[in-house]
């Protein structure tokens, strides 16, 4: 009886490990694609583009620096933010 329980446990552990490995590989692919997308997005930033930040803020780029960008929001206020906070170009 003990051998049957041990054999069942080994099969169950192997199945769980295989599932975790497959899930990790699929998730790693998605993360790599998203990282490449964001890298290209941050290199394409230009003055006049409408952008969306990861927090949901919308604005228009007025200046592009090496690490930061100035963005004009709807109220007319110009804010300086990290260029890596931008998640989408509209």
Descriptive overview:
With 90 residues, the chain is α+β, with helices and mostly antiparallel strands. It has 2 domains: 1-43; 46-90, Roll (SH3 type barrels), CATH 2.30.30.60. The protein is 47% helix and 28% strand. It has 1 helix and 5 strands. The protein has a 5-stranded antiparallel beta sheet, with helices on one face. The longest helix has 42 residues, at 2-43. The termini are far apart. The mean pLDDT is 87.
Taking the alpha carbons of the first and last residues, their distance comes to: 64 Å
The DSSP helix count reads 1
Shape: rod-shaped
Helicity level: 40-55%
Order of helices and strands: HEEEEE
- Number-wise, the strands total 5
CATH architectural designation of the largest domain: Roll
CATH class of the largest domain: Mainly Beta
Average pLDDT, to the nearest integer? Answer: 87
Features:
90 residues, alpha+beta, SH3 type barrels, 2 domains, 1 helix
Task: Sum this structure up briefly.
With 90 residues, this protein is an alpha+beta fold. It has one helix at 2-43, and strands at residues 50-53, 58-64, 68-72, 78-82, 86-89. Strands 4-3-2-1-5 form a 5-stranded antiparallel beta sheet, covered by helices on one side.
Walk me through the topology.
Layout: H1 2-43, E1 50-53, E2 58-64, E3 68-72, E4 78-82, E5 86-89
Antiparallel strand pairs: 1-2, 1-5, 2-3, 3-4
